[in-house]
What we know:
Blueprint: E1 3-7, H1 12-23, E2 27-32, E3 47-50, E4 66-69, H2 76-81, H3 83-104, E5 108-114, E6 125-126, H4 137-156, E7 159-165, E8 167-169, H5 185-193, E9 200-203, E10 215-216, E11 218-220, H6 221-234, E12 240-245, E13 251-252, H7 253-264, E14 270-273, E15 282-285, H8 288-294, H9 303-322
Parallel strand pairs: 1-2, 1-4, 2-3, 4-5, 5-7, 6-15, 7-12, 8-11, 9-14, 10-15
Antiparallel strand pairs: 10-13
Helix pairs in contact: 1-6, 3-4, 5-7, 5-9, 7-9
Amino acid sequence: MSKYLVTGGAGYVGSVVAAHLLEAGHEVVVLDDLSTGYRRGVPAGAAYVEGRIQDAGRHLDGSFDAVLHFAASSQVGESVANPGKYWDNNVGGTLELLGAMRAAGVRTLVFSSTAATYGEPAEGLLTEASVTSPTNPYGASKLAVDHMIAGECAAHGLAAVSLRYFNVAGAYGEYGERHDPETHLIPLILQVALGQRASVSVFGDDYPTPDGTCVRDYIHVADLAEAHLSALEAATAGEHLVCNLGNGSGYSVREVIETVRKVTGRDVPEVTAPRRPGDPAVLVASAATARERLGWTPRRSDLAAIVTDAWEFALRREAERADGA
Length: 325
């Protein structure tokens, strides 16, 4: 059994990873300030400490085997309007976390990175060697942290893996998306199916894709969690390993909408809107590095299965609201 600190473990991905760690028999301590996470997202069996990333040094000691770092501000629009928050929290916070890890002798880190580090790529299938040119402070802050981690590995022997997520979706039992505001496509469409929104906006229908709408790579959150556990095993002292996490194939916006209609059996009105600046036509991950280095293969790549899990979680949340929970 190992002991892990999970920063941001009350959020969407962090809570699912924490649950997987517990199921594997490990000891988990969640550090989260609940600014975007939820107390009920902390899995039963995990110890919970309320605090920011900058507080990690108060809780880290030599009993921990590794840190899994999810705590971050992650709204693209907000990062443009308030970039200082992103440099302070994502970059400054992680800098303090790395120092606290060094002081405590905790020498393994798995970092929640993002496909936003690539910006507006020219090619549709992205590898870790693709040009990184983020178009907003959120993506830039995550890329800055990747560079920071690489320096820590080279200078101080940290064993680190950065996992660059593409479109994370689905749910894992009682753990799913609770974002406020919600910006992800699948939960937004499910809100329409539930009658919480009048329609879903399709931003551009004239892209060079089969149905004219953008194509994206969707990965089930449980597959993502399994990759984190594999990353803990693959982390090597002095190396900063970067891995894309995706299915290697994509679905268009209209394919996602149609899948939601089929899974829910409900009407989902759509409205065509102008393209959003910076939206590439196709954004799909090559996960060859993750397959080779982590021994990881996504097992839940069927879009209907991803949507079904997300729908069941959305219905559970709707019942909670009805009960006043």
